């Protein structure tokens, strides 16, 4: 149980913290407005930022080990599939050629 003195100290601290939070919110809001003004002056907009963020994220993803391994595996599988389809096509062509000769 808290004494009356401790309760009063906590209430005073609570008021002080609330005031500080309000001040910080006001400062943050002012800085955000200033940021928007600077971006507008530089010609930066949301679409440009999204493009830049996407490009950076795509680049970062491509440099991961998991992406590289997956890319190599799929590339190798694609090469094998291409070879297999080519062989099937060659076999079918040969079969048609044999059928024409008969």
From TrEMBL:
The keyword Coiled coil applies. Residues 7-34 form a coiled coil. The keyword Metal-binding does not apply. Keywords: Coiled coil. InterPro entries: TPD52 (IPR007327). It comes from the Eukaryota. Belongs to the TPD52 family. This is TPD52L1 isoform 10.
């Amino acid at each position: 149980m808290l004494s009356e003195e401790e309760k009063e100290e906590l209430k005073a601290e609570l008021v002080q913290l609330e005031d500080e939070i309000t001040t910080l919110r006001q400062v943050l809001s002012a800085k955000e407005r200033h940021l928007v003004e600077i971006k507008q002056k530089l010609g930066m907009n949301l679409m440009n930022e999204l493009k830049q963020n996407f490009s950076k994220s795509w680049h970062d993803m491509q440099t991961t080990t998991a992406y590289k391994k997956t890319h190599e595996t799929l590339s190798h599988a694609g090469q094998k599939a291409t070879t297999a389809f080519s062989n099937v096509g060659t076999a079918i062509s040969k079969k048609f050629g044999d059928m024409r000769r008969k």
